[in-house]
């Protein structure tokens, strides 16, 4: 069932259940509020280590992250030093199929993707192991729209995909898998969505 979440980004920006003694620790974050660029997504607003463009170019457009390159499973990431984490983003403009998050990244052929809106709707968790692709858990069939928030909760072998819409978080897909459990790089994904935009990215602690 959906949990009782507290806000990181203000009203409606719910991210995690409240931990006893205060809000969850934020390991990495980025508002993307900086100058436009087509090929250098740059240093995040938390002033930590810079984004790495793993597949395709990534930049900033209108205070949002985007990939100007169409296709080829575009991805970029931040180093978080955390393998168990909550990775969240706002999809400020969906504008295409296959947007979302990458997580537990080793390289472009060894990672996971939280794919949202692929073929027009839904959410699933995809594992890429040595370039081979498979689905973890089951695909949720539904609508993820511009302005919705999505997140993945990583806790040991348990992986959950969540969707925030109409004022509530909803668990959409989940599964268990032991692949890449020591990987600590997490970030953004754009499969066939060069028009997609992302805002308010964060990596925070698991409750």
Describe this structure as you would to a colleague.
- This protein has strands at 5-7, 14-17, 26-30, 52-55, 59-60, 65-66, 74-79, 85-93, 97-107, 110-116, 123-129, 132-140, 149-155, 158-165, 168-176, 185-192, 197-204.
- The chain is mainly beta and 207 residues long.
- A seven-stranded antiparallel sheet has the order 4-7-16-9-10-11-12, with no helix packed on it. A six-stranded antiparallel sheet has the order 3-17-8-13-14-15, with no helix packed on it.
- The protein is globular, with a radius of gyration of 15 Å.
- The two termini are 15 Å apart.
Can I get a quick summary?
The protein has 207 residues and is mostly beta strands. The chain has strands spanning 5-7, 14-17, 26-30, 52-55, 59-60, 65-66, 74-79, 85-93, 97-107, 110-116, 123-129, 132-140, 149-155, 158-165, 168-176, 185-192, 197-204. Strand 14 (158-165) and strand 15 form a beta hairpin.
What's the topology here?
Layout: E1 5-7, E2 14-17, E3 26-30, E4 52-55, E5 59-60, E6 65-66, E7 74-79, E8 85-93, E9 97-107, E10 110-116, E11 123-129, E12 132-140, E13 149-155, E14 158-165, E15 168-176, E16 185-192, E17 197-204
Antiparallel strand pairs: 1-2, 3-17, 4-7, 5-6, 7-16, 8-13, 8-17, 9-10, 9-16, 10-11, 11-12, 13-14, 14-15
Number of strands: 17
Unreliable residue stretches: 1-19
Q: Structural class of the secondary elements? A: mainly beta
What portion of the residues fall into strands of 2 or more residues? over 45%
Average of per-residue pLDDT values: 88
CATH class: Mainly Beta
Oligomeric state as shown: single chain
**How do the strands line up in the largest sheet?**
4-7-16-9-10-11-12
Rg on CA atoms, Å: 15 Å
């Amino acid at each position: 069932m959906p949990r009782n979440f507290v806000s990181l980004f203000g009203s409606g920006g719910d991210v995690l259940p409240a931990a006893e003694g205060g809000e969850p620790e934020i390991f990495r974050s980025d508002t993307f509020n900086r100058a436009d660029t087509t090929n250098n997504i740059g240093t995040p607003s938390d002033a930590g280590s810079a984004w790495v463009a793993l597949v395709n170019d990534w930049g900033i457009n209108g205070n949002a992250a985007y990939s100007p390159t169409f296709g080829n499973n575009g991805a970029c990431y931040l180093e978080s030093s955390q393998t168990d984490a909550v990775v969240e983003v706002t999809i400020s403009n969906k504008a295409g199929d296959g947007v979302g998050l990458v997580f537990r990244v080793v390289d472009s052929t060894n990672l996971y993707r939280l794919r949202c809106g692929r073929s027009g709707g839904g959410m699933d968790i995809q594992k890429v192991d040595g370039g081979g692709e498979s689905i973890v858990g089951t695909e949720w069939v539904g609508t993820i729209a511009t302005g919705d928030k999505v997140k993945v909760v990583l806790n040991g072998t348990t992986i959950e995909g969540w969707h925030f819409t109409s004022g509530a978080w909803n668990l959409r897909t989940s599964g268990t898998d032991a692949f890449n459990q020591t990987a600590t790089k997490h970030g953004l994904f754009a499969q066939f969505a060069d028009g997609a935009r992302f805002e308010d990215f964060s990596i925070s602690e698991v409750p």
